[in-house]
Design goal:
This protein has 2 domains: about 15-85, RNA polymerase sigma factor, region 2, helix turn helix motif (Rna Polymerase Sigma Factor, Chain: A), CATH 1.10.1740.10; about 100-185, Arc Repressor Mutant, subunit A, CATH 1.10.10.10. Helix content is about 75%, strand content about 0%. It has 9 helices and no strands.
Amino acid sequence: MRGSHASCARLTDETRSRLFREVVMPHLDDAFVFARWLTGNPTDAEDVVQDACLRALNGIEHYSGGNARAWLFSIVRNTTFTWLARNRPKTLVLTDDLESAARDASTVMETLTPEAQMIAQADAALLQASIDALPAPFREALVMREFNGLSYREIASIVDIPVGTVMSRLARARALLIERIGKEMS
């Protein structure tokens, strides 16, 4: 699968389907989580991911090997911004509803006392609100790094900025989070 598929004059439907299954399908859950952070809700994220999948399928011959996840995230990111411009021209909301984190933490929460559960929920809500309050470029970099586990290089490639800018945005995002959470907890 390495090497450029762009040199192929025309891929057969069977080859396109196979490449789509190999390149895109393994990363759909991550793409949905990323789109949910960018759009602010799961319903819009589903629309975005569906559009991104169509774009990925139509452009699969341009995938030249390498990091398939980063390639798909680039498509999801661009599709999200196009979708947001069309459907919410005046706003860009990057948020998440913490449902998946709540499901993952449910076992731990069940063993906590009611008081500890309330504190944990308040902490999660504070973190969520603090992330939501970050400027969009900082929030985007933070979500890709901390929630999606992308490397600095992958983020730089997706956003089309230098690695140093990614590092700067992450440092600034973390500093803003610490500052805001510190103010709220004091």
